[in-house]
Amino acid sequence: MTSIRLDTLTKKFGAFSAIRTMDLEVHDGEFMALLGPSGCGKSTTMNIIAGMERPTSGRVLFGDRDISNVPMTRRGVGFVFQNYAIFTHMTVRQNLAYGLKARGTAGAETDRRVGAIADFLQLTPFLDQPSAKLSVNILQRIAIGRSAIVEPSIFLLDEPLSNVDAAFRAVMRTELKHLQRQFRQTMVYVTHDQLEAMTMADRIAVMDHGVLQQVGTPLEVYNNPVNIFVARFIGSPGMNLLPATLVELGGRLHADLGKAGLSRALTAPLAAAARGQKSRDVWFGFRPEELSVAADTAGLTLAVTFIERIGSRTIAHFDAGGVAVKGVFENDVALQAGSTAHVVAQEQSVRLFDRATGQAIVGD
Ligand code: ATP
Fold first, then answer.
1. The architecture CATH gives domain 4-232
2. Which of 107, 283, 314, 346 has the fewest C-beta atoms under 10 angstroms from its C-beta?
3. What is the pLDDT of residues 171-195, one digit of tens each?
4. Please, is 269 exposed, middle or buried when counting C-beta atoms within 10 Å of its C-beta (0-12, 13-18, 19+)?
């Protein structure tokens, strides 16, 4: 097992900064997801770890060893790309055995390991078939198996499931997690899909525009996003953010949401943190899952614009003075498009962000 450390890493393509001063540690045996929208620098980071790309400045360390100048072929990492790179003229068995043969592994040991990985990835029925005729789903399994079979201590996967169908993606999420648990590899997994990151990773590194925004466990980034980018990006739907002004009423701090009304009093720790801020202008944030319909006319007043049934739950879309708000409810929720609803954001779930900087205002 090996840890990975990125030390003040930067990458420029000409004048364009693809990565701006990034420090990140991936622990031994940890599953780290690099998460962010298209173009945020995930693949560039991954390529630098793999040795396919050189950083403009900064270092890459595996354990205590600075490998910044070690060529890709000598870094000993397994790498699986979005576009499976497998040999279509070979059978599945030959593809799986390829890395072991190249290392001179004995025939019996190769057979044993091919059998084991094929079993694990449910490839056994296809072992002697030519790869060319197989489906995308199977090809991506072969690509994962081919890298995993040499048991690299560092395993890098760049959007490996983006080309496969939704049902198979759900299966593979579980299988990849099992694979990593079994071999205890240090795994870095690039994805733009927050659900993939949330369900698989031990920790998530959220990136935007070449800047690392937050590193934390799935629940940390979900519950306590450090800024409005992370708040919106994590969660499905993301966090609601309403422009608000903080006001004192009867010794308690509330958020004035304009036409939508006044929030309940903020919790004492959040109010204390907010009172320490220079500006009263904030983003009032709450998760769609934390919204409930008020029993009376108390709470926020929102116009219901659309009711979306997603099977297990119902998503209600609201308008709050021109700002879209979403709430996730049980299917029997009594809300109708075109009506006005009174809803409450639970006090404990409220998050505040400085309107000027977008940074979280955090209570103790
Ligand atoms: P995606 O999911 O779309 O691949 P990403 O987060 O992985 O996005 P990168 O591929 O790392 O993003 O690209 C980051 C930025 O750097 C993008 O704006 C991209 O256009 C730019 N970029 C990447 N490689 C090069 C290159 N070789 N030359 C110039 N610009 C590049």
1. 3-Layer(aba) Sandwich (3.40)
2. 107
3. 889 888 888 888 888 999 999 999 9
4. exposed
